[in-house]
Amino acid sequence: MSDYIQIKHSQIDFYHKIPLFYKTEDNEYHLYKKKGEPIAEARLETHKHPPLFILQEDKRTAAKELQESLNIDLARQIASKGVKTVKSIVGRIVAEALEDPCPKTLDSLPDTIEIFFAGHAKNSELLKAMTMVASGSSLIIDHTVNVLAIATRFCFCNKLGEDTSKKIALGALLHDIGTAEISQKILEVNRRLTDAEFDAYKSHPLKGCDIINRCGGSFDPMVAEICLEHHERIDGSGYPMSSRNISFQSQLVGLIDSYEPLTYRDKTFRKAKTPFDTLQLLKHEVLEGKFDKSIFRNLCSCMTS
Ligand SMILES: [Fe+2]
Ligand SMILES: [Fe+2]
Known about the structure:
Elements: E1 4-6, E2 20-23, E3 29-33, H1 41-46, E4 52-55, H2 59-79, H3 83-99, H4 103-106, H5 109-122, H6 126-132, H7 139-157, H8 162-174, H9 184-188, H10 195-201, H11 204-215, H12 221-229, H13 248-259, H14 275-287, H15 293-303
Antiparallel strand pairs: 1-4, 2-3, 2-4
Helix pairs in contact: 2-3, 2-5, 3-7, 5-8, 6-7, 7-8, 7-13, 7-15, 8-12, 11-12, 12-13, 14-15
The chain binds fe (ii) ion (2 copies).
């Protein structure tokens, strides 16, 4: 097995701390850039890099460095109101976390939330606008970023305390982190899942809770709880525990988690429905007793305001 991993071309200039390598025709790896320094300006300007590689042992440091750089980029883009770029940067941060959920990749996420909240204070249309554009990322990443934006919007709209709001936002960002341990084939299926596939999919809340407890050292317990409970329903019809006793924040993320995919016409084609039409679709599940009526009402007034 190779001790080197190829990196994406678009990420080359994010790496300062770790060395980069290129491969010769004889399949030997040679140093392209030393540890602790950026790629030379002259080389960056040409945009002509050979395929570049990092050492396997630097993989997690690389992921952390990439996320830190993305956070800096995020703050810059929020300030300049580049909504689509903001969405795709948050998507890339989520993608890194999903690819290898470990302390190094999860540690940068509270900073992402801080930047996101500070950005909202300067650009109050940001959250609304974010859910209107497709980021070009995969379905699961687009979904996650939308759930984050809607949950944060709900928190601001309902004037929840800043501390609680940030925990809910982090829980929204990480609610499906358990899918990192589900087969990619199941996640990308564009048809109804078989019973066996659905059983495998249904393990993601527990897996997510385990990942947070294992890796998210300093996270508030609310984050793991949201991962575990976001598919539970107050009538006991949810999973994995068929629990009826679900925290407010898990109910909220669960409701938004159900709302968000309904804004798509189907799984591959984004044609946004109005919030009003989407909420109408969800209303019958509320009337069946799956979701709390007052949380639904508050979501309705915040999404249609
Ligand atoms: Fe989920
Ligand atoms: Fe979800």
